[in-house]
């Protein structure tokens, strides 16, 4: 406990799932957290739960980070509430799966807008602050789908692959003069998103993991959140431009 004491973090998509787990772990480590999602009820719930823990303080900001004005408002909330911004986790996302030949432009565009455009807009707004501070940690969330592709996810895979290139470019631009690290994590855990996976496919997913299982956010969220704490902390100051898979040793899709 205390590895992020005094730090200020924005975690997008933290109204549920992995984002919620990250926000709560950051607060437990002493950080003040801005909770974000489009669903205001989820945002309020997570912020209240964090504040009830008695560690870091949380405020909520419900908005659509694929819109420039909303992304800027999210970042401004952190500065207005806490006076600075040390950590950004770009986690917000969802899926609209379909076969390539059946995928609509709307299904393609909406997924890229949230995952890739949202990551760009939040990072752009955050970078201006961190460049002035001459310090900061930016952690993007990608996926094995962005590294290997995935059937029925041309939109999602494209967005996550884009985040990989975006991460490496931002690391090059923000590291040398401004001491801002930029990394990406490709996690694998049972979440609301994975509930959509057909039951007959799930055993095949486990067969391709060295540990033979997926992380369980309810039973042991630290298996996923631990790498985010490391990258956000002072201990992670020499790690940048990396794509880190936290997936039980996934050998395939």
Short description:
The protein is built from eight helices and nine strands. Helix 2 links the parallel strand 2 (32-37) and strand 3. It starts with 7 loop residues before the first strand and ends in a 7-residue tail after the last strand.
Describe the structure.
The protein has 253 residues and is of the alpha/beta class. The chain has one domain: NAD(P)-binding Rossmann-like Domain (Rossmann fold, 3-Layer(aba) Sandwich). 45% of the residues lie in helices and 16% in strands. The protein has helices spanning 17-28, 40-53, 68-82, 105-133, 144-148, 154-174, 202-207, 222-232, and strands at residues 8-11, 32-37, 58-62, 87-90, 136-141, 180-187, 189-190, 215-216, 243-246. The chain has a seven-stranded parallel sheet, sandwiched between helices. Strand 1 (8-11), helix 1 (17-28) and strand 2 (32-37) form a beta-alpha-beta unit. Helix 1 (17-28) runs parallel beside helix 2. The longest helix has 29 residues, at 105-133. The model has no long low-confidence stretch (mean pLDDT 93).
